[in-house]
Design a protein that fits this description.
The protein has 579 residues and is mainly α. It folds into three domains: 421 residues, no CATH class; 65 residues, no CATH class; 40 residues, no CATH class. The chain is built from 20 helices and seven strands. The strands form two sheets. The protein has a four-stranded parallel sheet with strand order 5-4-6-7, sandwiched between helices. The longest helix has 36 residues. The N terminus is likely disordered.
Length: 579
């Protein structure tokens, strides 16, 4: 097993694992994490991308996987998911205390790197179908794609490229633009936020050993909230500048994702990206949304609305949870991708939603596991059209403000971004494989691992109490029998019970039950009738009964009938004689 981490991880992993397991034990005592929407503390299979049978949603049934619990990709630290809400409550919603507890428990930078065997890690050119031709990866999106691009560079041993620094004069000019727009808002202006630039290649004249030109990815900024249309022209321009053409045998892979695509437009943006990139004959990898931790966002925001008098929970937590529940933030929380896969449309997709959800508690601002990917202009500068009311996207998309002094205290968990990159490569090259260790974790059902353990602990305590009471009762009975003497041993159990009130009550209940059953048997007795096909009268049956009655009556009154017949005969003969 070779770890994709720093050298210190090899020597400190044992100590870190022990500390992380210690925090996991604390997590069991604190119960499960409290997430948005009314205190739901479970982690459902749907949140992790599992079906009812425990398999991954996008895993095909063909092929035999070589991965198992012993052969899989994971990060060094254990004990996830971290109960963020409970720990923040215990820390009085002080984010600095929370991050200090994480560091003390072993969730440090070296322990949050991706680990796994070399055979389990895919290379960036695994989708290459021909020996000739170049391979180029282009990342289109916001900070979500910036973190993924640098994970791509780490995989290929290339220098990391982050946002370009800005001078104080640039910041002053931007704030001047904001003040001018606040005074005169009659002019139509773009509703896009400020964003930083990024270099397309390392500034070093010579690439490090092991880094090749194909291992450097390009970055194109795309604000999914402003425009739901993919920047196709920018992608084509970048391909022309690099000199790659899919029609000539080159492999072009475009990674697309954004944290701020509205829920109502996410499906149309995904379908439009599929069609446009298919026309360009390039490969698409769609990046699922990141899990946004409302508790961490409420603890690290600079905005405060006070605390609830009863629960002592920040009111901003309820505001963020409400916005998340209504779909204003969260990019529809993987519901769009899941509904598309249920329709039978398979698109290479990363498992960012499953990974950030499973290993939640490490996002410094509730979104980013690597704060270097957080664009300082996009997140910290106000909207170019002016300040907005808290939580409202009046002019541009709303982003939660962040306490900058917490950036140095956050754990650097870039190993999660490395896992997200591997999930995207596996979705292209080996979609039927399940390379991540969380896929083989037990107790991943609705109750969640922490809740199941807590229930089992309560059940064990109850069983111990019952066993103790039974043993105490046995000792008491034995002591009483020894005090009574040999006469008590000769008494039969029935004589010892005597006229027990509980047995008398049992007898009365049995009698009442028999009587009640007999009454109900006659009350609800079914009749022996047969249902007729029609509700109208049966004339044939009535006529048949009338004929039978007339025949019976004629047999009973035979003498009267003969007299009437004789009188009628005499009257008939008398009439003939008179004539």
């Amino acid at each position: 097993m070779v770890a994709v981490s720093r050298l210190a991880l090899a020597s400190g992993l044992a100590v870190v694992g022990t500390s992380a397991l210690g925090l996991a034990a604390v997590a069991h005592d604190l119960a499960v994490d409290h997430v948005e929407g009314g205190g739901r503390s479970d982690q459902t299979p749907e949140e992790l991308g599992f079906s009812e049978t425990g398999d991954s949603d996008d895993a095909n049934s063909y092929g035999k996987s070589q991965f198992s619990e012993e052969f899989c990709v994971d990060i060094g630290a254990k004990g996830f998911p971290i109960p963020t809400f409970k720990m923040l409550q215990a820390a009085n919603w002080d984010a600095a205390t929370y991050f200090a507890q994480l560091q003390g428990a072993g969730y440090a930078e070296d322990a949050l790197q991706m680990t796994g065997p070399d055979a389990a890690l895919l290379t960036s050119d695994c989708m290459k179908e021909r020996s000739h031709g170049r391979t180029k990866h282009i990342f289109v999106g916001d900070s979500q794609m910036m973190s993924l691009r640098n994970a791509f560079h780490r995989l290929n041993k290339c220098p990391e490229i982050w946002w370009t620094n800005h001078s104080e004069q640039d910041i002053t000019d931007m704030m001047g633009t904001v003040r001018r727009n606040e005074k005169d808002r009659s002019k139509t202006a773009s509703n896009a936020r400020f964003y930083s630039r990024a270099e397309q290649a390392p500034e070093t004249a010579k690439l490090p050993h092991g880094c090749k030109e194909d291992g450097i990815g390009s970055f194109i900024h795309w604000d999914g909230w402003v425009s739901h249309q993919l920047p196709v022209k920018e992608i084509q321009k970048e391909m022309q500048l690099i000199g790659v053409d899919p029609e000539e045998g080159d492999n072009v892979v475009v990674w697309v994702g954004s944290n701020f695509i509205p829920a109502r437009h996410r499906m149309s943006a995904l379908l439009q990206a599929i069609n446009k990139l298919h026309e360009m004959k390039v490969k698409l990898v769609w990046d699922s949304p990141a899990y946004q931790d409302a508790a961490l966002m409420a603890a690290t925001t600079t905005y405060s609305e006070g605390r609830d008098e009863h629960t002592k929970i920040p009111i901003t937590f309820n505001s963020i949870s409400q916005r998340k529940a209504t779909g204003k933030i969260g990019s529809n929380e993987y519901a769009t991708e899941k509904s598309l896969y249920e329709q039978g449309i398979e698109v290479p997709t990363t498992k960012r939603w499953q990974i950030t959800n499973r290993y939640r508690g490490l996002q410094c601002d509730g979104i980013h596991t690597d704060m270097r990917a957080r664009d300082p202009l996009f997140y910290d500068m106000p909207c170019p059209m002016g300040q907005q009311k808290y939580g409202q996207s009046t002019y541009c998309t709303w982003v939660e403000p962040f306490k900058k002094e917490l950036s140095g205290l956050c754990p650097l968990a870039n190993g999660l971004d490395d896992m997200v990159l591997q999930s995207g490569l596996y979705s292209m090259c080996a979609a039927h494989e399940k390379p991540f260790c969380y896929s083989y974790t037990e107790h991943i059902r609705k109750a969640g691992p922490e809740l199941s353990s807590t229930m089992l602990g309560v059940r064990a305590v109850l069983l111990l109490i019952i066993a103790f009471l039974a043993s105490a009762q046995a000792f008491i009975v034995q002591t009483a029998s020894s005090l009574v003497g040999p006469r008590a041993a000769a008494i039969s159990p029935f004589e010892r019970l005597g006229d027990c009130p509980c047995m008398r009550c049992r007898t009365n209940l049995k009698k009442e039950k028999r009587q009640r059953n007999r009454v109900n048997a006659f009350r609800f007795k079914k009749g022996g009738f047969t249902r007729r096909r029609f509700n109208g009268p049966d004339y044939a049956a009535d006529q048949k009964k009338a004929d039978e009655d007339n025949k019976f009556y004629s047999m009973m009154f035979t003498f009267t009938a003969e007299e009437e017949a004789a009188a009628a005969e005499e009257a008939k003969s008398g009439n003939k004689q008179a004539a």
